[in-house]
């Protein structure tokens, strides 16, 4: 398998180089040169596989022989051996036809661990094998940062710098990142929003001289490894429900801000996974919902919500979807993305709107609705949803037909977002790993939201 850019100037690169490149050197995003197909027979033969075995099968479609099978098996085993649940991403029933897939049993209690435990180990492996310098630069609205840090803290040959928007992540998210005292970790609290953090890192990655001089590597979902690892749990959930005869009309409802997690579902579907509906759930930062329902992609005003990890206006994976929407036409994808920069928006024609409507259904959840859903599911079904998952469940409740089964991706543990849970007058107890964070000293530096300010810190650190 080789990888190519959505903007057409980078092609024919292998898996390891794609991982190391992160953002394509032409400013686009890397995608596989073709989408591997999984037949109905293969899918059936995967039914009895464990999560680790399934992940190994799926990764091997994208890695080829660049990583020997035995090394790949060990990487996968090590990555999911850190999860607290033997099934890694168990599927639980909430009520009739409604399920959640719990993606929060990894070290930092968020779905990001599923891909970032793997990517952290992969970086360490590549660094050992090829002697590559791994200097990670990432941006977070709260979950990716902690998870990426956890994936590489203390690892030899790797340094990591994470930008988060100062005081715009939850208290637990902030503590998870900033109480880490390993010398290879730097936390920058940026005065601005997550979009500022993401813009800065994307511009620094797009400065190819700077990127190469400082060996910058990506852990955000611009890195194709993130997307590939996240496709696995769609297959896993499908197979668990298929065994029970519940997968004939199976929907996934996905809370999303950066379009990475739902893009992984889209890719799984294009690989042949029979997904009935992909439901896209946003909070009040609803650019993606407006795109699906109105065909207009236009960043709006930033809104602070109870689900801060989705407080995003500019969704970094959107370009990957545009690329497929326009039949893998690199010129169209590049031209449309540049319209967002020059005109502040892009509008798609009616035929494309129809395709988007066939690919996704979407619902934007307001702050009050999010809290109401948390309270309702706690009172009626004794299940405590985190506010991001609550957005997914709200969208599922709006958009699921009576003859359909819907799995909502439960992206984080509620203990990470007690600000919202407390407003619902629910008292939760913290897992001991989270409780322990409150007594540890924090390490972070507050910086201005400019490329120069961040660049200065990076030059000192790397
Ligand atoms: N919601 C994310 C934002 C970054 O997204 P990513 O999927 O590109 O890493 C977060 O919690 O940091």
UniProtKB/TrEMBL annotation:
Organism: Paenibacillus aceti
Domain Threonine synthase N-terminal residues, every copy: 2-80
Tryptophan synthase beta chain-like PALP domain sequence ranges: 99-341
Keyword match Amino-acid biosynthesis: yes
Enzyme category, top tier: lyase
Catalytic activity: O-phospho-L-homoserine + H2O = L-threonine + phosphate
Pathway terms, separated by semicolons: Amino-acid biosynthesis; L-threonine biosynthesis; L-threonine from L-aspartate: step 5/5
Family from the record: Belongs to the threonine synthase family.
Role, per record: Catalyzes the gamma-elimination of phosphate from L-phosphohomoserine and the beta-addition of water to produce L-threonine.
Cofactor(s) listed: pyridoxal 5'-phosphate
Record carries keyword Amino-acid biosynthesis: yes
Keyword annotations: Amino-acid biosynthesis, Lyase, Pyridoxal phosphate, Threonine biosynthesis
Enzyme Commission code: 4.2.3.1
Protein name: Threonine synthase
